[in-house]
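ok, trying the design again with the full structure, not the truncated one.
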């Protein structure tokens, strides 16, 4: 991947999530539940569940919470029936936005997402209106101070990474979703701790906003992120790092 640094917006997103730890737990429990429901309760045979459990452990979620979420998914315990709903739309400046939700009330989810878009200079689009611009990728950000380029390149490419690029103070590693876990395991074995790591949706092109439009776009992303049904928000929004709110 070439050219466009997303680290500024990644850092903002990470900071926003760090400030909402209770919400993180709720989202992780939902993800574990839906993963267990769709692929069974054994993480060894269910990659989505394995990834959800790893994310929960990274946030220090108690083992009992993880177990109960799995049991709700497999039907051993009673729990809410969540539906996966994806929304696509546009933010200020024509920025493409995808919102993944897990909801037990479709009408509420649609209403709240539409309101968040319209209040913050955006609008909902049709299914497929922006999705074609995105592909699912593992993104791992490693500080340059944590690893030598040649050593890091050898480690991650041998483990199956697609690319490693220079993003200023950091290296950005891209993987396919299926190779993400192997690359993360290789970094762990080499005692290299990433600054940020996730499987996300990466756009083929990015739209840089400045000033009022950038601020409005940040408000839109925050408004969507604050909704109870929201699991993840993706966009092709880019801005200069100095524009990121403290």
């Amino acid at each position: 991947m070439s050219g466009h640094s997303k680290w500024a917006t990644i850092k903002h997103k990470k900071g926003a999530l760090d400030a909402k730890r209770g919400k993180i737990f709720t989202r992780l429990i939902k993800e574990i539940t839906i993963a267990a429901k769709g692929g069974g309760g054994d993480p060894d045979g269910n990659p989505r569940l394995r990834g959800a459990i790893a994310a929960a452990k990274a946030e220090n979620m108690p083992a009992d919470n993880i177990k109960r979420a799995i049991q709700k998914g497999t039907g051993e315990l009673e729990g809410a029936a969540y539906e996966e709903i994806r929304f696509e739309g546009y933010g200020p400046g024509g920025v493409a936005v995808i919102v993944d939700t897990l909801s037990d009330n479709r009408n509420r989810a649609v209403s709240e997402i539409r309101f968040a878009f319209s209040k913050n200079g955006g609008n909902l689009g049709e299914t497929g209106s922006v999705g074609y611009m995105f592909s699912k990728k593992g993104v791992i950000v490693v500080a340059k101070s944590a690893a030598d380029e040649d050593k890091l390149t050898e480690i991650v490419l041998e483990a199956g990474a697609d690319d490693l690029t220079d993003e200023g103070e950091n290296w950005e590693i891209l993987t396919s979703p299926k190779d993400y876990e192997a690359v993360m395991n290789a970094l762990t074995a080499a005692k290299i701790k990433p600054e940020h790591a996730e499987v996300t949706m990466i756009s083929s092109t990015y739209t840089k906003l400045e000033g009022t439009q950038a601020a409005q776009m940040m408000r839109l992303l925050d408004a969507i992120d604050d909704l109870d049904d929201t699991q993840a928000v993706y966009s092709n929004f880019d801005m200069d790092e100095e524009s990121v709110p403290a």
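Keeping the full-length input from now on. DSSP finds eight helices and ten strands in the chain.
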